[in-house]
Amino acid sequence: MSSVERKAKHGVYAASITAIDPSSGQPSGKRLIEHSQWLMSQGMTGVAPLGTTGEGNSLPLSFRLSVPGLFRDAGFSSDKVIFGTGSCSVGDATAATRAVIDAGFTNALVLPPFYYKNASEDGVFAYFDQLIDGVGTDSLRIYLYHFPQLSMTPITVSLIQRLKKHFGPMIAGLKDSSGDFKGTLDFVAAADEFDVFSGSEAFLIEGLSKGCVGSISATSNASAALTAKTFNAKGSAEAEALQETLTTVRAVIAKYPLSAALKQIEAWRREDDSWRSVFPPGTLLSESQKSELKSALEALEPGASVLKNSLAA
Asked: pTM of the entire structure?
C-alpha cells in the first residue's frame, strides 16, 4: 500500500450518527453499519464514524474498539473511512487508534486532549507523540480535529508544522469544525501534503476552489445525496445553485441540538422512532422543536431531498 493509498480519498464524508439498540439501550454496531452503507449509497465519498456527531466521547471504549472490525467485515474500503479516536486519555486514544490499524484501516480523526484547559503546545505535541509511538506503525494517517468551541484546545498552525516535521506523512490532514473559513485557509497553507477538510459543507465549493479537499460534516447525514451532487458539480454552471440549497439545509438543521436533530431526521426517513435516542447528556428534541424542524425541512423539498430515501434528482 502506497503512502497515497493509505490516506483518505478527497471528497465528502458524513460524520455518521450512532444508533442506539432499543432493547438494550446500548450503541448498535449493526445500525451504524447500515446507516453508513446508506450514506455511501447516496453518493458520499466516505464516512467518519465515532466523531462528535456520532457522540463518540459518550460511547463506551469497548464499543469504540469494536467498530473498525465491523466496518472491515462489512467490506468498507480503507481509504473511505476516517474513524474518530480522540480521547482525554492518550492511552484510550492509542487503544482506539490501534484498533483501526488492527482492522486493516489507516485513517484516524483525533481530537487533542480536551479536559485540561490552556494546554501548552508542548503538552499537545506530547499527546500526539505518545499516541503515534504507542500505535507503532508508519501506516497510520492522522487527521487532526480542530473544534475549539467544544475541545477548548485548538490546533494551531505552528503545531501542525511541528508535527509534520517530526512525523511526515503520518500527519495527513485536518478537519476544521471551527466555522472560521479564513482560519481554514490558514491551515491549507500550513504545510505541504496536508489535506484540509472543512467541517461545514456550507464552504464546500469555495473551499475546493481554495485548496480544501472536501468536507467532513454532520449535516451530511441528512443531505448526503445533495452534498455528493454538489461536490461532483464543482466547476460546473450548477455548482453555485446546489451550494446555495446545501447551505440552506445546513442552516435549518444547525438551529437545533445537532445529534438529536439528525437522529430525528433519520427516524422520520425510516419511519422508526427508535432512531431518535441520544446518549446522555444529550436530550431528545422537544415536541415544538420537532414540529418546527419538520416544517422547515418540508419547505425545502424536493431539491434538498432531506426526508427521502432516494438520490437527489
From this structure: 0.95
